[in-house]
Design a protein that fits this description.
Elements (H helix, E strand, L loop, with lengths): L9 H24 L15 H10 L20 H15 L1 H20 L2 H13 L5 E4 L7 H4 L12 E5 L2 E11 L7 E7 L6 H4 E7 L5 E6 L11 E11 L3 E3 L3 H4 L1 H30 L3 E2 L2 E2 L4 H29 L5 H26 L11 H10 L7 H12 L13
Parallel strand pairs: 1-4
Antiparallel strand pairs: 2-3, 3-7, 4-5, 5-8, 6-7, 9-10
Helix pairs in contact: 1-2, 1-3, 3-4, 3-9, 3-10, 4-9, 9-10, 9-11, 9-12, 10-11, 11-12, 11-13
The structure holds flavin-adenine dinucleotide.
């Protein structure tokens, strides 16, 4: 249930293998040693720094960072596909850990594209030097993220977080919620309204905000159903002043955010796939060793049918994911459609894979110290990351029929 290695480049094969060893030798034993650890209510106590240090030593914490600043430069023609391969391997061990690391890759890609040179010189070396340094991307607010995804481009749907130019800087006020790495990050990309008179495609700007900026407060770590090591958080900005040069994109920040979101959707699908592969591997072992009705489970035809269904769904997700990743790498016209398809398809198919895993494990499937319920919980969370499945479907149709589809929001007639 893995990629056909003969189709991978030497770089991809090496990255995939070293990642798999890290998962099998470090991450999986850590998770199995204490299934309750992700449920510790002190977020600081959940994931030991040593895990991030080991990930860092492999280079998988700083993917996307330009080589001149100490990052690991992947083949640019296959960067997104390689992100997918690695994200799948990490999520096969733990998808919350995968979330932590991939946020760094995605935000690093955004920064290398939009941050002025002096900010890259300042922040990339700090990110590279500290294995605990994490990045976060703050778009969602208490009022409806879906309006931004569609987008619903009218002034009344604008972000509530505002940034106002004052002297040599910007003053930010507002609240961001549901942010992956939000609780732990050292550096945030923050979207804010900078022109309330226009729609959000014209009036949204993005800023780079260091965690220690006065006025920035991390107000909570959200307790999520799955992917719990990501430490999803909420951040409040109260008269938070950032210098003028911390502006990344002025006005059309949402229009330019595809540089983050297209690889992001591929990575979401790949993490999801990793969870499905783990569920399949665990279940395949179980049904070949556990006996009911006088024979191992796999010899009961109803069990075999479920296993075939799991394998088929995984293969289908992988095939679509590979096509979509290659389209994003090639900047192909169908990239937007395919990356949304891959994200939605993976989130629904892998949830079904995990449901089969729960069923085939019987009561053990529901027990914390068996680890199957964790995969089900982790899979469930992907439905709502990077847009809901419904909004993603609307985006698929909108990208296929731009002339006729798209007006999915507005005041009631
Ligand atoms: C685990 C996790 C991690 C996340 N990480 C991040 C992050 O790092 N950064 C970040 O900025 N955000 C993050 N998010 C937020 C995520 O992107 C949003 O939760 C998601 O886009 C849905 O937005 P919402 O929660 O505001 O739901 P809403 O927009 O309030 O939607 C509620 C319901 O209404 C439906 N709906 C809304 N508008 C329409 C419409 N016009 N037509 C049809 N149906 C509609 C939606 O499909 C949904 O079913 C994360 C969320 C989760 C769960």
């Amino acid at each position: 249930m893995s990629w056909d290695e003969s189709r991978l480049t030497e770089e991809q094969r090496l990255m995939k293998r070293s990642c798999r060893s890290f998962i099998d030798e470090v991450v999986t034993p850590f998770i199995r040693a204490n299934w309750q650890r992700e449920w510790l209510m002190d977020p600081d106590a959940r994931l030991p720094r040593t895990i991030l240090e080991e990930a860092d030593a492999l280079g998988i914490r700083t993917l996307g960072v330009p080589e001149e600043f100490g990052g690991l430069q992947l083949d640019p023609e296959r960067e997104v596909e390689t992100f997918a391969l690695i994200a799948e391997e990490i999520a096969r061990g733990d998808s919350g850990l995968a979330d932590k690391l991939v946020q760094n890759w995605k935000v690093a890609v955004l920064l290398r594209t939009f941050a002025p040179r002096h900010l890259q010189e300042r922040w990339f070396p700090r990110l590279v030097a500290d294995p605990g340094f994490l990045l976060a991307h703050c778009l969602t607010e208490p009022r409806g993220a879906s309006d931004r995804w569609l987008p619903y481009n009218v002034p009344e749907a604008a972000m509530h977080t505002r940034a106002v130019r004052m002297g040599d800087g910007w003053v930010i006020n507002g609240r961001k919620q549901f942010i992956s790495n939000g609780y732990d990050a050292s550096l945030y990309v923050v979207y804010a309204n900078t022109d309330p008179k226009v729609g959000m495609l014209q009036g949204t700007s993005s800023f780079l905000v260091p965690r220690d900026t006065p006025g920035l407060t991390v107000t909570r770590c959200n307790e999520t159903v799955g992917c719990r090591f990501m430490n999803n958080g909420e951040i409040v900005f109260e008269n938070c002043i950032v210098p003028e040069d911390h502006l990344l994109v002025e006005g059309d920040a949402l229009g330019k955010a595809g540089v983050y979101f297209r690889p992001g959707k591929i990575i979401q699908a790949a993490k999801n796939l990793g969870v499905g592969v783990a569920a399949f591997e665990r279940t395949a072992d179980y049904v070949q060793s556990y006996v009911q009705g006088g024979r191992v489970l796999i010899k009961h035809q109803a069990v075999a049918l479920r296993l075939a269904d799991m394998a088929s769904r995984i293969a289908a997700v992988r095939a679509l994911l590979r096509d979509a990743a290659q389209a994003v790498d090639a900047n192909a016209p169908e990239a937007e459609t395919l990356c949304n398809m891959a994200k939605v398809f993976a989130s629904e198919e892998i949830l079904k894979v995990c449901q089969h895993a729960m069923e085939l494990h019987g009561g053990n499937g529901a027990m914390l110290d068996f680890g199957i319920e964790k995969l089900f919980r982790d899979a469930a969370i992907f439905l709502h990351m990077d847009a809901t499945t419904d909004i993603s479907r609307l985006k698929i149709v909108k990208s296929m029929f731009p002339a006729t589809a798209g007006a999915y929001a507005g005041p009631e007639a």
